[in-house]
Amino acid sequence: QVQLVESGGGSVQAGGSLRLSCAASRYTYSSSNYIGWLRQTPGKEREGVASIYIYIGGGSTYYADSVKGRFTSSQDNAKNTVSMQMNSLKPDDTAMYYCAAESVSGRWYTVGPRQFRFGYWGQGTQVTVSS
Predict the structure, then answer these.
(1) pLDDT 10s digits, 87-130
(2) Distant-in-sequence, close-in-space partners of 68: CB < 8 Å, separation ≥ 6
(3) Strand 95-111 vs strand 125-130: parallel, antiparallel, or unpaired?
C-alpha cells in the first residue's frame, strides 16, 4: 500500500533553512509517477509547493512561483525518500507541509505549470518561520 511519512520541519527565523524528508513505501514507487509537497495554513486551501518525478533517471521537478529559487526537491531512490531543502525561508512559508503521491481518485493541485492528482498523504509536518 502507499505510505508516506514526513520528517523534518520545525521553527526557524526568517532567512533560515530547513529540510523536509518524505519516506515512501516501495509500493508508492510502483503506483505513482510524482511525489509532491503541499502546504496548508488554517482557513486556506492546500496549495502545491513542489513536485518531483520519482523514477530512476527521472528527477524532473516543478515549483510554485512563490518558492522557486529557494526550495529544491530531490530524491534518493535507494532509500525511497524524497526531500525538500528550503532556504531563505520567509514568514509566509509558515504552514503545515505534506508530502503526497498521485492517485487516480485524488484532487487536482497546481504546482507551477503542471497539475497533479494527489490522493495519498503523509501526516504532515509543521514549519514555522518567525520574523
Answers:
(1) 999 999 999 999 999 999 999 999 999 999 999 999 999 999 99
(2) 112
(3) antiparallel
